[in-house]
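Attaching the record inline, Q. Sequence:
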Amino acid sequence: MRRPSPLPTTPPARRPAAEATPVEPAPTGPPHAERTAPDRDPSPEQITEVIEPARPGRLVPFAPTVAADDVVPDEETPDAGDRPLGVRDVWAAARARRRALRREVRRFTVRQRRRRSVWIASLAAVLVVGLGAVATAYSPLFAVSRITVLGTDRLDPDAVEAALAGEKGTPLALVDSSAVKAALVGFPLVESYSIEARPPQELVVRIIERTPVGVVSTRGGFSLVDAAGVVLSTSEEAPKGYPAIEATGGVGSRAFRAVGAVYRSLPEDLRTQVTAMAATTPDDVTLTIDGADIVWGSSDDPVEKSRVLTAAMAAKPPSEVDEYDISSPGAVVIR
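Structure, as predicted:
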């Protein structure tokens, strides 16, 4: 228990009435004051401490006391004896800050930079390979030195190679297809063609020849023509092995095209037996085999018509009949 402080020997001076502050009754139970009997005044021995209440409307700030040993000096605050900061110090601090920022950026973007490096390396590799391929293809090492002609039957391959001799010495990648076409136009037997480059120095020309379908009588003689009416050759005498064609309207008519379509649809064994073909319209094509007429009709359904004609000829040879009417394959008429 706290010892009571002695009373002052000199009574305290009274405050003026204007400054006197009414004293409110003490709290019922302060933790540091002893309770006194309500019916008598406290004795000097019982008074331990008098607390002066704050004035109404006045705030008493609380300032905690700090021991001298607890004060931690600021490391960044220079001592009084240090020199003041200069421009060089500010510049060094800014440079250090920029370096730290760059390190953090590099640390957080390492995956992105790695992916970008992979993409750049891949694109560079593709570019190098492409440029190398182009440079190699256009170099003299891949220039044409040999021309090979394939697919010819009645056409002379040496003549075709001689016509394409102008392409020799040209890089394979620079072979002009229009020049090749101009050289092959002079050969009527050429129906279509294709060119193929075979590195390092070979050019292959594949030719599809026109198929002759018959002989047409003209003022200049007898012309061998294909299904499109293209004249393949002309001679004074009719070429053997090909049927004679008579079509109303000439080689450019629809009737002639129907005759050519029928001839090309025939099986090989029937085609070699045909000696003549005629048509006035595209729907009344007539063939001649060993003196017997075959009414073919239109060029539709050639497979079925060929089958029934073969069966009818097996039942009754052409030498025994005058006409086979197979224009309706389901109802064959033999006369």
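Confidence is low (pLDDT under 50) at residues 16-52, 56-78. The CA atoms of residues 31 and 331 lie 134 Å apart.

More tomorrow.
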